[in-house]
Amino acid sequence: MKIVFVIALVAIIVALFAAGRAMLRDGRDGEPKSNRMVRALALRVGLSIALFVFILVSYKMGWIQPTGIPMGQ
To answer: Taking the model in full, what pTM does it have?
Structure first.
């Protein structure tokens, strides 16, 4: 389960870097601007939402259990 979370986080970071790279490269040297940055950011948002939903579903199905600091102390 941890591997799925790590892969999703890496994919989100890669999409963010792709958007940054597209932002820096588009429109240089008289080239027309493309939609690469918009697509990369949309992919990042979609991956983030999918990861959040996956975590919620995993909790409801019992695949993951909450751990950490006890509540009320």
So the answer is: 0.78
What the block records as the tokens of 49 is 């939402």
In SS3 terms, the chain reads as CHHHHHHHHHHHHHHHHHHHHHHHHCCHHHCCCCCHHHHHHHHHHHHHHHHHHHHHHHHHHCCCCCCCCCCCC
The SS3 of residue 1 is coil
Q: Residue ranges per domain, the chain?
A: 2-61
Q: Do the Cβ atoms of 26 and 36 come closer than 8 Å?
A: yes
What is the rounded average pLDDT of the residues 43-58?
95
> For position 73, what pLDDT does the model report?
61
Residue 57 has pLDDT above 90, yes or no: yes
Place of tokens 């939903």: 53
